[in-house]
Every structure is written in structure tokens, then in C-alpha cells.
Amino acid sequence: MGRGGFSSETLSLVVESGRETPEVVLTLQYPGVVVGRLLSADGLPVAGASVRAAAVRGRVTTGLRSVRTDADGAFRLVELAPGTVRVTATWNGQVAEVPGVIVSSGAETRVDLRLPPTGDLVVTVVDQAGQPVKGAMLFLRLPGGGGLPVRTGPGNAELPPTERVAADREARRRATVTDERGQCRREGVPAGEVSIMVRAPGLTSDPVTVAVRPGTTTEARVTLVPGDNGAEDSKFRPLEEIR
Q1: pTM over 0.85
Q2: Confidence (pLDDT) at 154
Q3: Residue among 176, 208, 215 nearest 193 (CA)
Q4: Which CATH architecture has domain 3-114?
Q5: pLDDT of amino acid 236
């Protein structure tokens, strides 16, 4: 970004000894702004989502700005250099993207995004005898590469910051593991293929892939077998690491 809120391009010159360098004219441009709203698949505003604008030049992508949506799902990305940008919104493992947004000098461009449809996922974990396994940890790989949404306690927002962090962490831990029935239920899973791995002390599983359909509940059954669970596939993420 140049002086006084202008943006400019970088120009490389070769200066040769004893020769006059051609006149160079640099044009300063006002930055542009991208505004819009992020909506859920059923048209409701999504608050607290991350929205990012990245410059696209050939095969090179450069990050520019990142903001959070407000209570109405609105966002405003400012001081963007004129050109083409990719606007991407992410929320709880869901991704919405508009690849070719034109940012004009001194102008405001509007881009509205809508998250993909979601469904619910119920995973039942059993041992080789068919008995439910309590306390097994789920690792997942979602269509958008993110993690599952985690519902924190309804009263956590009223707690002091330090206590709220601890309460939210405990809620995420409970959501990560199976209950006494060997089950873990998650709502709002992005529709598409979801791969599941499960770990428990001394037990492991191969990846199980299911197709989550929008607006319905998809059930998956995973059988654990004895095995080393010390190493995890880097493409899978434990739910307790997802915020």
C-alpha cells in the first residue's frame, strides 16, 4: 500500500552504465472495498465466520485481508489493492467461495456468500465382540477440509473469560468422545463424503467413509480392533482441536 491510502505496483528496472534510463510513470490507485453477507444453506445470517480475500495472479495466491462476520452475517474487507481476488468464508468446517471478484480503484464491490447444505452424523463405535466402546476419540476429514461444529454450553457466554475458555474446552472434550452407548452425534456436518477414524487405548480402526446427505441423519458404524494408535493420519483432525 502506498502513501495516503493509495496502492501501487512494484516495477523492476535495469540501469545500465552510461545509458539513459527511459522515463518511468507509476500510477497510484485508491484501494477498493468488498462488502457482503454470509448466509447459511437455509438463508439465515451466520455470525462469527472468517471471511478472507486473497489476490489471485496466475497460479500465485497472496493473502490480503481477513475479518469476522457480525451478528447479521455482514462483513467488510477494506484497503484491497485493485485487481481480482478470491473471497472465501469458513465456518465450522463449511466453506463458501467466490473465485473471481473484481476490486475496482476507490469502489465498493458487493459479494454475498451462502454456505453449503448440511446434515447430521451419528457414529456408533463397537469392539470386535459388537459391544459399545465408551470414551473412544473421533478423528474426521470433511469435504471442506475443516472440523465439525462444537456446541458449547448455553451459559458459557455469561462466564468470565478465563472460566469461559475452560468451560468451552470441556464441552469440546465431551463432544469428541463416544458416550456409554458408544455413540457420538454431530449436527451441521457439511454434506458430502466424510472419512472417520476412531481411537481408544490399545484399539484403532481403518478409515470409514460415509456420504452425508443434506437435511437427513447419516449413521456410521465403526469397529475397533487391537492396534497401535500412536500415529495419526495428518489429514484427520481430532474434534477437540476444532473451535
Answers
A1: no
A2: 38
A3: 208
A4: Sandwich (2.60)
A5: 47
